[in-house]
Design goal:
Strand content: 15-25%
Helix content: 40-55%
Number of helices: 12
Distance between the termini: 60 Å
Strand order of the largest sheet: 1-16-15-4-5
Largest sheet: 5 strands, mixed
Structural class: alpha/beta
Number of strands: 16
Length: 376
């Protein structure tokens, strides 16, 4: 498509399976059982439901240590405080919910591991808003122990970067390496069911080429769920945010690349359209007449002296990509993002393949030298 050529000139296609550092083996798998989507059993909402179920009999007796508010109304900080507070009953209640939720997450994870796409997975990182709490960290650690007890040779670990920034930082790994040679930052967008976050991500590539020290220099957050905009209104606001960040980066003296990486829910087609999974976004983003990358290129045709290039991928993929520098000791790894639903992606490192080819080449050269020497 012409639109696709405009938005991804010189780089990979939207939703690409082959990226600079990894092969994306799968993403956004929707596993089902008799009760519906399995991911719904390991979402933030699922944890809150488990907690409220445990509180129900206590409420009848007026002995609920967490008070009258529903679990949905209780903040993460309050639950974290309950874990270490003086109220033993409250701590026990939250621990009980963690234990039950960990069992659900372990079951769902084991189902992923049984699929062909997730075979031989060695490590899984867990991101999403749920991870951003002590409750979430304990649930992840408990799930890891349960999986090991079941015989799975796998590590389940929390994502390293702040979940609010991981999706933005992961967008760096959508960009080709030539972008980093002349620029020190990119624009990144993380679109969610409630929020849109835009940021300028500093690569620090010249000091640390594996991008492990990349960081978000500046970001802006818009909670679109509160404003309930139209689709066109959401795009207009997104453009405004990006233009403000371009101006801020220029004022700061950053060398901003002519590239925008986008993290977005759903199955992303190679032309930048969204096949499915964008039902929580404002308006109909799955319409064949709507193409976000093309809309952004039309509004921001150039950054600096160069034409704007855009690459969009699934939000779970983007969040997982932030872990690329820290996954070089394994071949196959995945990401689960616990939020409104359960995002997922599985990766195979391309670097490993390159290393094997390099080793093979070195061994062949060594053999050639030995053969030459023996003939002499």
């Amino acid at each position: 498509m012409a639109e696709d050529t405009l938005t991804t000139t010189g780089i990979a296609r939207h939703g690409a399976a082959r990226l600079p550092s990894v092969e994306v083996d799968s993403f956004n798998i929707e596993l089902k059982d008799d009760d519906g989507f399995l991911g719904d059993r390991a979402s933030k909402g699922a944890f809150r439901k488990i907690l409220d179920t445990l509180r129900k009999p206590l409420k009848k007796n007026g002995e609920d240590p967490l008070g009258k508010k529903s679990a949905e109304e209780i903040g993460k900080g309050t639950l974290d405080e309950a874990l270490v507070g003086d109220d033993i009953a409250a701590a026990a209640l939250v621990h009980g919910a963690i234990e039950e939720f960990a069992g659900e997450l372990a079951y769902v994870t084991s189902r992923f591991l049984k699929t062909k796409a997730w075979a031989d997975t060695e490590r899984i990182v867990v991101g999403g808003g749920f991870r951003q709490s002590r409750v979430g960290e304990l649930a992840i650690a408990r799930t890891d122990l349960l999986l090991k007890a079941e015989g799975h040779k796998i590590d389940l670990v929390p994502i390293r970067f702040d979940p609010d920034e991981a999706g933005l930082i992961g967008c760096l790994h959508l960009a080709p390496s030539w972008i980093f040679e002349a620029h020190d930052s990119i624009l990144a967008v993380d679109i969610g069911g409630s929020n849109i976050r835009c940021g300028v991500v500093e690569t620090r590539w010249k000091k640390v080429p594996d991008l492990s020290k990349a960081s978000v220099w500046k970001s802006e957050l818009w909670r679109h769920a509160d404003d309930e905009p139209t689709r066109e209104g959401a795009v207009k606001r997104l453009v405004k945010m990006l233009k403000e960040l371009i101006l801020a980066a220029d004022t700061e003296g950053l060398k901003l690349a002519p590239f925008i990486g986008i993290s977005c829910p759903g199955v992303i087609n190679d032309d930048g359209s969204i096949e499915k999974g964008a039902q929580n976004l404002p308006g109909n983003w799955e319409s064949s007449k709507f193409n976000l990358p093309a809309s952004l290129v039309e509004a921001i045709p150039a950054i600096g002296d160069h034409d704007t290039a855009i690459l969009m991928h699934n939000d779970g993929v983007a969040q997982g990509l932030s872990e690329v520098p820290f996954m070089q000791d394994v071949d196959h790894w995945g990401v689960l993002t616990i939020g409104t639903g359960l995002g997922n992606a599985r990766f195979t490192n391309r670097k490993k393949e390159k290393d094997k080819d390099d080793k093979k080449e070195k061994d062949e050269k060594k053999d050639d030298k030995k053969e030459k020497k023996s003939k002499e």
